Amino acid sequence: MSSIKFKKILSCSSEDEIHCAENLFKSKKWLSSTGTDDRIICIIEFEKPSLINSLDIGNNGSAFIELFVSNSDDDDDWTILLPSTILMTPKESRSNTNCLQIKN
């Protein structure tokens, strides 16, 4: 199965200087900037409309993840692809333990 090609990052709410959102294009880490405890969001445009059959999500310290998809430029036209999913407990997230998980 081939991977979906990313075209560009449309927006990102927070990113570390070294582990920036562009790293998602290279299957590397995307981290929020230091001191960001709230939800962080990254909106990525694919090169072309694509059918998503499966997901492999690498985690680096997030307690939860939720994925939305859209096939338009309308900011209000989002569908839940992956409902809020626990990747680690909030305690593990705060203490930075058990943080390198993969969800497929």
UniProtKB/TrEMBL annotation:
Gene3D superfamilies noted in UniProt: Galactose-binding domain-like (2.60.120.260)
Gene Ontology BP terms:
base-excision repair; single strand break repair
Which Pfam families does UniProt cross-reference here? XRCC1_N (PF01834)
Residue ranges constituting the DNA-repair protein Xrcc1 N-terminal domain according to the UniProt record = 1-102
- Source organism, top-level taxon: Eukaryota
GO molecular function per UniProt: damaged DNA binding
What's one GO-annotated cellular component? nucleus
This protein is called what?
DNA-repair protein Xrcc1 N-terminal domain-containing protein
What's the source species for this entry?
Adineta steineri
